[in-house]
Amino acid sequence: MKKLICFTLLFILVCSTYAQNQVKEESIRLFFNELKAASDGAKQLWNQDLYGPTLLIDPSTRKIYANESDNMGTLAPKDSIYIGILPQDINFSNTALDWNGKRWAMIMLPLPENRDDRINLLAHESFHRIQPDLGFALHNADNKHLDEMEGRISLRLEMEALKKALRSSGQDEIKKHLTNALFFRKYRYKQFAEGAVNENLLEMNEGIAEYTGVIVTSRQDEQTKSYFINGMERLLKNRTFVRSFAYQTIPSYGYILYKKDHEWNKQINANTDLTAFFIKKFELKIPTPTQQIFKKLATAYNGKIIFEEETTRDIENKRVVKA
To answer: In the predicted model, is pLDDT for residue 16 greater than 70?
Structure first.
């Protein structure tokens, strides 16, 4: 009797595991089909197909689900997908990598439940896969100045102005808020000489990738604006802005410009100064970044609250360091 019970339990466990694997594999096929459909609809964005070698990795098991085979025969075919185990010497993360004779986009499972967010992520990492072919080097520049109080304040003010630009409908209002957003940026660069170069390097890397993800997703206009605004508000909960800022700034400027010029991204290259590029494309005149103008403009963008919060944060940080 005990043997029968054990056998029954084992049978149920095996069936349950098989069913779970079937559900996961069906979902994987859906994810690849979603990315392919979205990429097919956005080939004109870079005149190159985003859809290509892609690895979805289960971090708990290192199991690979791929949309095509590798050149070494490591991945085994199974009903239009390819399965294997990621070698221990390869770190997994959301990135792009060269492995077994191909360049892959790598994305960690589970993917977002929301379809638009899921395609956004898949397309973002797919851009990193083709990034070298487009002439954009991969950079992870150090933006430690965005951990300094003055750097954080000016970035937060820039994002407040960006949010107002996204919410505005009239062209004069949009232009006013864009002018102020980029003024806060230029003021930050006046304070931190290295900021202009290092921010541009990271924005060229992660900012353009995220912009690509957003455009490929094809959200409705209001959904896209909400996506950016919610993203900037979530950013405030991060302990640091040194990397995450790039996912919000350039995609927001880029989307506003996209509504005027669908192909602006084809006009940039690895040497483009994105700040100067957007100032020129939006036909803006940025005032000379003085402290007087900075303080005056800040009042229209929650400046009082931002100054207070960042001063408190700075005092606490100094206390911890001293301790």
So the answer is: no
